[in-house]
């Protein structure tokens, strides 16, 4: 096995932390016959100890809000560079309908500014060479922050 030259690298990064919220991700890669990378996100409500979902942060229409914002940002990128390829958005011949939208399994994290960031793995919406695509949802975390304030405030 020593001659196979297997490399494994694992890291973590805290993206956002305050008294009530911790958002981090673990990423890494494995290199042997091929190269494989991975990212796993954790968004934890430190008050309850539970992992937060997009619905917790954005309300019942979370997936629709997030997907609309992702598509809006994709169209803006396409206006700036029409040669980009987003499967299921502007590429009707190859992997049509590949972008399945934002669902409960869509990875996300909270950045240092408190904004939710939707993170779509490479090869899920663009060719793998483009890499991981992050889409910032500005000001959409307000629903959750307001609910935390109202819970924490004495009546």
Summarize the structure.
The chain is built from 3 helices and 6 strands. It has 155 residues and is α+β, with helices and mostly antiparallel strands. 17% of the residues are buried.
Describe the structure.
By secondary structure, the protein is an alpha+beta fold. Helices cover 23% and strands 30% of the residues. The protein has three helices and six strands, in the order βββααβββα. The chain starts with 6 loop residues before the first strand and ends with a helix.
- Give the C-alpha Rg: 18 Å
Q: What average pLDDT do the residues reach?
A: 79
Helix/strand-derived class?
alpha+beta
Helix content: 10-25%
What gap, in angstroms, lies between the N and C termini?
Answer: 64 Å
Main sheet, how many strands, which sense, barrel?
3 strands, antiparallel
Strand content: 25-35%
Gross morphology is flat
User: What's the arrangement of strands in the largest beta sheet?
Assistant: 1-2-3
The ordered string of helix (H) and strand (E) elements is EEEHHEEEH
SSE blueprint and pairings:
Elements: E1 7-17, E2 21-31, E3 35-45, H1 54-58, H2 62-80, E4 108-110, E5 116-120, E6 133-137, H3 142-152
Antiparallel strand pairs: 1-2, 2-3, 4-5, 5-6
Keywords, separated by commas or semicolons:
alpha+beta; single chain; 155 residues
């Amino acid at each position: 096995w020593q001659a196979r030259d297997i490399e494994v690298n694992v890291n973590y990064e805290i993206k956002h932390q305050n008294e009530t919220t911790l958002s981090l991700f673990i990423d890494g890669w494995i290199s042997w016959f091929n190269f494989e990378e991975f990212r796993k996100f954790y968004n934890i409500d430190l008050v309850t100890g539970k992992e937060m979902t997009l619905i917790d942060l954005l309300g019942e229409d979370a997936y629709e809000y997030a997907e609309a914002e992702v598509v809006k940002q994709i169209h803006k990128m396409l206006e700036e560079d029409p040669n980009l390829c987003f499967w299921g958005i502007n590429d009707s011949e190859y992997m049509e309908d590949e972008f399945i939208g934002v669902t409960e399994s869509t990875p996300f994290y909270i950045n240092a500014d408190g904004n939710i960031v939707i993170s779509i793995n490479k090869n899920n919406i663009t060719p793998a060479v483009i890499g991981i695509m992050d889409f910032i949802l500005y000001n959409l975390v307000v629903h959750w922050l307001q609910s935390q304030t109202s819970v924490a405030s004495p009546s």
